[in-house]
Amino acid sequence: MAPTTQSLLPKRPPPLLKDELDIVIPTIRNLDFLEMWRPYFEPYHLIIIQDGDPSKTIRVLQGFDYEFYNRNDINRILGPKASCISYKDGACRSFGFLISKKKYIFTIDHDCFVAKDPTGTEINALEQHIENLLKPSTPFYFNTLYDPYRKGADFVRGYPFSLREGTPTAISHGLWLNIPHYDAPTQLAKPRERNTRQATTLYVDAVMTVPKGALFPMCGMNLAFDRELIGPAMYYGLMGEGQPIGRYDDMWPGWCIKVICDHLGWGVKTGLPYIWHSKASNPFSNLTKEYKGILWQEDMIPFFQSLKLPKDCNTSQKCYIELSKLVRARLGKIDPYFIRLADAMVTWIEAWDELNNTSGTASTAPAKVK
Ligand SMILES: O=c1ccn([C@@H]2O[C@H](COP(=O)(O)OP(=O)(O)O[C@H]3O[C@@H](CO)[C@H](O)[C@H]3O)[C@@H](O)[C@H]2O)c(=O)[nH]1
Ligand SMILES: [Mn+2]
């Protein structure tokens, strides 16, 4: 039988981690932004969390493989534990991390589009995140040529050979073109600032490991992580309606995951891939949501910087429970909000264990704490 044109075409490899990664999207809007991502996201499974009024219909484009949850679903699935999932804040995406059964997560906002690199080529953000996650990190000694595992790169002279094997990567933190990730005061001071290739060229072709001991302001809009390693700590906190604070939904887990990754010897990468962040949220309403966080971060950051987790905390779950105790004891003095947050951290872990069949004593990913 003569071969068909189809069978003569070179076989394309299946998309990387196709059955091992979920894409989590929190949204208050229709998901038309997915059209631009179709070639990149269509092979993957999407978990969509509709925030706000559950009776509102959210349009998802045809052709995508997805599961969809609104507030009624969250309440039904979690019962009283649904109290740990924020309402009217992008922090509701935590529910997607909880319900997923995959090893890896990529999370993206509804106003993030495909960016182009300086040559005008579309950036496959998901592919770059996967590359970041599958290659080791170097948190214990900084490589001045950035990620030594990237094609064409290596360790520089003076890099200890004993550390060249690297350590597992738990987080890949991607960046943004166009609308930068600014707090409300900076947004107000620079209302027209855009990160474009034409103006201030802030496209930096680099991936690097955030060094051990250094905290960083994590942004939640273009982020991937190894859910088996760090999922239990990837809780976006209590934000939005009924809470005194919003927009710290990414900062909070960013500080938590970094101290835990440092303790367990895992890496956090930042840099590529870029996405195109299209819409600036309103700086005045942002200020209302953020101002307490701006005050409290002067205490929260030193708190995280001074933390020491005990040696027997050898899983994310155990570390997170320990962290909740420290939050209650030390940040609880600043405001009763932190007592509620500490309680919610415990509820989150209980929900995690329930849905994932794990417990703090028998985690799937114990690490050797040095
Ligand atoms: O009540 C809400 C509001 C928004 N969402 C969804 O969450 C993400 C982010 O929302 P948005 O793009 O409006 O806000 P940004 O200020 O750009 O958000 C970024 O900064 C951090 C501060 O909150 C946040 O982690 C970043 O992503 C969108 O997908 C909205 O649809 C929501 O679910 N509920
Ligand atoms: Mn946005």
UniProtKB/TrEMBL annotation:
The record marks 157, 164 as: Required for activity. The keyword Glycoprotein applies. It is found in: Golgi apparatus. One of its GO terms (biological process) is cell wall organization. Its EC number is 5.4.99.30. Pfam families: RGP. SUPFAM superfamilies: Nucleotide-diphospho-sugar transferases. One of its GO terms (cellular component) is Golgi apparatus. One of its GO terms (molecular function) is UDP-arabinopyranose mutase activity. InterPro entries: Nucleotide-diphossugar_trans, RGP, RGP_fam. It catalyses: UDP-beta-L-arabinofuranose = UDP-beta-L-arabinopyranose. Glycans are attached at residue 157. Keywords: Cell wall biogenesis/degradation, Glycoprotein, Golgi apparatus, Isomerase. Probable UDP-L-arabinose mutase involved in the biosynthesis of cell wall non-cellulosic polysaccharides. Belongs to the RGP family. This is UDP-arabinopyranose mutase.
